[in-house]
Give the backbone structure.
Amino acid sequence: MPMSINPKPLLNDTTPSGYNRTKRQYARIFLWLTSLLLITSHPFLSLPTSACAVYTMHGGTWFSHKNFKWMSASILSFCISLYSLALRVKSDTIDEGFAYELKMSLEVRQRTVEITWGGILLLCLVLTVKNSLDNRMAVGKET
């Protein structure tokens, strides 16, 4: 007698209610830290916080546009933190008396990258909070 295999247990498409939302909230907390650390020029500290955001989002549903948006922001933050740290390390290894212009160009590039991405990320996070507050106000007015 042939055994039939039920594919249902193999495909676990059901996730608990609020599972992806919780992952996004944790990722946003890590991205808040990352953006503040980048703006204050701490790429060594922003690297683990952005890695935590990537790790938090990697287990979520990839086909959700909200998850995709925050996963993309997490991956970009990690790459930019790594790039900024590499520029910082390279700048620190250059002798200021020997190649002052090169050292300063690396430092300017590093700060530009940090401030630009930190500002964009901070703007996205602030707009998310504003949107959330607007939605709560709209729901409060309807009832």
Q: What stands out?
A: The radius of gyration is 21 Å. DSSP finds four helices and no strands in the chain.
